[in-house]
Amino acid sequence: MLFHLGEMVTATASVADEVLELLGNEMNYNVQVVSPEEEDRELLDSFDISFGDEGDEEDWVVRPPVVTIMGHVDHGKTRLLDTIRKANVREGEAGGITQHIGAYQVQTELEGEERPITFIDTPGHEAFTAMRARGAKSTDIAVIVVAADDGVMPQTVEAINHAQAADVPIVVAVNKIDVEGANPAKIRQQLTEYNLVAEEYGGDTMFVDISAKQGTNIDQLLEAILLTADAALDLRANPNMEAQGVTIEGHLDRGRGPVATVLVQRGTLRVGDSIVAGDASGRVRRMVDEYGDDVTEALPSRPVQVIGLTSVPGAGDTFLVVDEDRVARQIADRRRARERNAELASRRKRVSLEDLDAALKETSTLNLIIKGDNSGTVEALEDALMKLDVGEDVELRVIHRGVGGITEGDINLAIADNVIVMGFNVRAEGKATELANREGVEIRYYSVIYQAIEEIEQALKGMLKPEYEEVELGRAEVREVFKSSKFGTIAGCLVMSGEIRRNARGRLLRDSVVIADNLPISSLRRFKDDVVEVREGFECGLTLGSYSDIKVDDVIETFEMREKPRA
Ligand code: GDP
Fold first, then answer.
1. Looking at ligand 1, which atom is closest to the CA of residue 123?
2. CA 176 to CA 214: how far, in whole Å?
3. Where do the coiled-coil regions begin and end (predicted)?
4. Residue 42 lies in a domain
5. Which of 54-58's residues contact partners 24+ apart within 8 Å by CB, and which partners?
6. CA of 211 to the centre of ligand 1 (A)
7. Domain of residue 516, CATH code
8. Do 77 and 184 have their domain in common?
9. Quick check: 551 and 481 in contact, CB under 8 A?
10. Are 179 and 252 within one domain?
11. Do 10 and 90 fall into the same domain?
């Protein structure tokens, strides 16, 4: 039936959604195409699990806000995260927060009450948007950092847009007030344009002037976060259920195996729980907090590092606790199978008869496999690469990505197509290098993101067909026309500008209108001698191939096609 519909496919090939719907119609089936999210919901349904169910309202208790710090580069996001981390020395802890696990919690006193705030420890909106793109809402409040000596910049605006689009309340931290010339009032003024009006001007956004470097007003900033949370949000969650939440980051640890930092959003996560995160499953063997201490249970808004998964989940993957290891494993297996099918489908080229023509002059594609040491960097790298734009003729496709060393499996995947395997802070394991060498698969290693991006951009540009541009060489005016039985029509010319070169291309203009184009300057003479070029101010005789319609006062323009360097 598909052949009749003009689709050349084999029994195991993937086809487009529309083709399936068409096929369904032909066969009297009603085909419904579901999104990956719907499919996942159905998968969980089949185990009688519902992600996002918050349980009974009477069980809900107040939970701490989860905060992401965003803003323009160099405005002090990292420094602020550092300062907050260091300012919060827990009682009995010598060094304060010592472990970078991807998020941390600090205690703040508000109206005599100790209240925690959770900070996502990755500055910038990349992580925020990556998670949002997967439908995981991890952030309750956005702190937008603006340097008072610099003002509102493009990424400031981007961050504000992201927060507002996600309906996340904003607290503005006006940073670097210690710098001479800092003008916090100007920042307030600039931000009114983006609907962020300071309370002191009658608006409802809290602005706090801080110095992340000197630790000025950090307490006030933390208070403003809590006050904003109390005013704008009703942050409550049910601790009395099996834990659910989102993965913040994951990596492969040499000693401990797969390690993932998760943020509990509802329920209580306990050591011993069976858990599934994305397509990774396992049992929580240990949980470690940002102080490096073991914890036995984690309540809502609590970030913890989980040890015991059998593989590394991706940043933004949701996690949930299930009754039994078996269920966790089955869900993970099903998700992995689905992922693999999707990967295969995106690799396989569909060629229908109509497409065949297009396929023949098809755009070239550079396929990539990205392996890295943690899911955050792999995603950041993929994101940045997908943003590369070198025009429509070449296309970049990431056919596989993952955390960990480059395996034989990766190389096998790469053999099929024009694939470059990228290792970011990871190396090839076992026989992978040998296999790659034997099969001619290119592996490139990186440890700096921008370098990786630059090289891939160069590779893409290298795949572009050369582009040519016309460069004008010279102009000559026709003063006399001779007919010769041997040479045909000869134009006696005076070179007005530039030079006329033999074998260059020329066009003939009459009263500024192009009469003939792309003619060869096939012979060029000064007096009786053949010459290669004639310069401005000199006379010459030339022929334009066999073209004969040349008149006195015509202008001959010559040009050359040169390969254009890529921007
Ligand atoms: P990010 O790109 O937003 O993460 O910015 P960083 O936190 O890396 O800060 C950029 C630079 O600004 C660093 O050299 C910081 O030391 C400096 N910086 C950050 N906060 C302050 C501040 O409050 N005052 C001053 N004078 N410098 C700061």
1. 4
2. 9
3. none
4. no
5. 54/237, 54/238, 54/266, 55/238, 55/240, 55/241, 55/266, 56/238
6. 9
7. 2.40.30.10
8. yes
9. yes
10. no
11. no
Q: What is the CATH number of the domain that holds 98?
A: 3.40.50.300
Asked if pLDDT for residue 349 goes beyond 50, the answer is no
Residues in the chain: 567
- 343 inside domain: no
Q: Is 75 labeled as ligand-binding?
A: yes
Give yes or no: residues 128 and 8 share one domain: no
Nearest CA among 511, 512, 516, 513 for reference residue 546: 516
Give the atom of ligand 1 at the shortest distance from the alpha carbon of 82.
7
pLDDT in tens, 280-309: 999 999 999 998 899 999 999 999 999 999
Output the ligand 1 site: residues, CB below 6 A. Answer: 71, 73-79, 123, 175-176, 178-179, 211-213
- The closest of 534, 486, 540, 478 to 507, measured between CA atoms, is 478
Cα of 72 from ligand 1 centre, angstroms: 11
Asked whether residue 251 is marked as a ligand-binding residue, the answer is: no
Domain around 4: 1-33
How far is the centre of ligand 1, averaged over its atoms, from the C-alpha of 153 (Å)?
15
- Testing ligand 1's pocket by substitution, the residue of 213, 214, 221 carrying the most ligand atoms inside 8 A of its CB is 213
48 alpha carbon to ligand 1 midpoint, in Å? Answer: 49
> How does pLDDT run across 468-508, given as a tens digit for each residue?
778 888 999 999 999 888 888 999 999 999 999 988 888 99
| Cα 210 to averaged position of ligand 1 atoms, centre (Å) | 12
195 and 157 in contact (C-beta within 8 Å)? no
End residue of a domain, out of 205, 234, 263? 234
Q: How many structural domains comprise the chain? A: 5
Last residue of a domain, one of 310, 338, 366: 338
257 domain-assigned: yes
